[in-house]
């Protein structure tokens, strides 16, 4: 079991909400703790959006509770009707994310037993808002999330895993079931990495320069994810057509293996290039001068098809599947070249913004 920052921040936010409620001498601080749980978000920007929505939702919930409590009393049926009306209004104003806390506000206000109902409602509303404020403050200053570090580290480790499986698959060295299970796991991990990209995208810069750098970084990371998707597609095709791949003429099998080896090395070097770990003499990737161009690969493939038809060979089915594999490889290659262009452009415009990699747990 992992004790992550989110777990620690939740506990700290609840304690802080209790102390704030106690400092303001608000009754029932437990409701401040409950509000802090609902208001805590995984990013500072989401916390900012949440506190705006929660204020709106709690005002609506408090007003409905006061109106129904003053007009119809505090029976269980009236509470249920107030909840229904609150839900309808919240959905009308598209405040679905704040519904839970708004309903908590309705219930804690309509729990009134005796005394001045308006004063009771104001105190309960204030208690809930203290919890929301406490969660925002904790998220802002206590262990603020660093999503770029987590994002790049996750991309690097996941891409390394994909590259390993492609190298095994193209050499027919991986067991069929293991590759199938790994493909499922890699896709699941990719979704989690994509989630980190969305969280990083939501973070806001405070200066014009930081916003410009952030926009360029987002373009680079998005292309990293697209290229990762293409590499997973290559692995999937190698897995689906492993029998046809094994029946190909040896020269084609070697050609595919060598091409993928070059591309996988290229991909590894691009990740090093982004972190500034690649030597200047290797800014063009190793083996590029010996690499066949895409049109040359397709010419060789087309000549092979013509020869097979001329010889009335039965290898047409294998050639059809070879086209599927080659198309994925060439698509992967094009995206690698585009990623190289983006990384080069980013480093030229922002030479001091190389990603400084740290040892951090991933995914």
UniProtKB/TrEMBL annotation:
This is Uncharacterized membrane protein YgaE (UPF0421/DUF939 family). InterPro entries: ArAE_1 (IPR010343). It is found in: Cell membrane. PANTHER family: P-HYDROXYBENZOIC ACID EFFLUX PUMP SUBUNIT-RELATED, UPF0421 PROTEIN YGAE. It is a multi-pass membrane protein. Its main location: membrane. One of its GO terms (cellular component) is plasma membrane. Keywords: Cell membrane, Membrane, Transmembrane, Transmembrane helix. The chain crosses the membrane at residues 12-39, 59-90, 121-143. It holds the Pfam family ArAE_1.
């Amino acid at each position: 079991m992992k004790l992550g920052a989110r777990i620690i921040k939740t506990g700290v936010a609840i304690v802080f909400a209790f102390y704030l409620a106690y400092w303001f001498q608000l009754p029932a601080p437990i409701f401040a703790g409950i509000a802090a749980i609902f208001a805590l978000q995984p990013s500072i920007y989401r916390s900012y959006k949440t506190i705006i929505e929660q204020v709106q939702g709690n005002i609506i919930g408090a007003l409905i509770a006061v109106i129904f409590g003053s007009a119809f009393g505090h029976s269980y049926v009236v509470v249920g009707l107030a909840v229904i009306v609150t839900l309808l209004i919240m959905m009308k104003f598209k405040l679905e994310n704040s519904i839970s806390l708004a309903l908590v506000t309705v219930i804690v206000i309509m729990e009134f037993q005796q005394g001045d109902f308006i004063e009771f409602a104001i105190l309960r509303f204030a208690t809930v808002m203290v919890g929301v404020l406490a969660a925002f403050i904790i998220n802002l200053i206590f262990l603020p999330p660093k999503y770029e570090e987590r994002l790049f580290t996750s991309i690097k480790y996941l891409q390394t895993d994909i590259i390993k499986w492609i190298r095994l698959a193209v050499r027919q060295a991986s067991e069929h079931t293991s590759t199938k299970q790994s493909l499922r796991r890699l896709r699941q991990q990719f979704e989690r990495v994509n989630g980190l990209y969305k969280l990083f995208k939501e973070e806001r810069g405070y200066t014009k320069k930081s916003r410009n750098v952030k926009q360029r970084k987002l373009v680079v990371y998005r292309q990293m994810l697209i290229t990762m998707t293409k590499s997973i597609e290559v692995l999937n095709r190698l897995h689906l057509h492993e029998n046809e791949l094994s029946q190909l003429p040896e020269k084609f099998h070697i050609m595919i293996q060598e091409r993928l080896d070059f591309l996988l090395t290229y991909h590894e070097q691009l990740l090093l290039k982004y972190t500034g770990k690649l030597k200047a003499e290797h800014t063009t990737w190793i083996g590029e001068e010996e690499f066949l161009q895409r049109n040359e690969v397709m010419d060789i493939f087309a000549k092979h098809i013509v020869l097979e038809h001329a010889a009335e060979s039965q290898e047409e089915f294998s050639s059809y599947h070879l086209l599927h594999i080659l198309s994925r490889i060439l698509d992967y290659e094009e995206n690698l070249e585009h990623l190289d262009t983006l990384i080069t452009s980013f480093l030229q415009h922002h030479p001091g913004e190389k990603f400084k990699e740290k040892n951090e747990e991933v995914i």
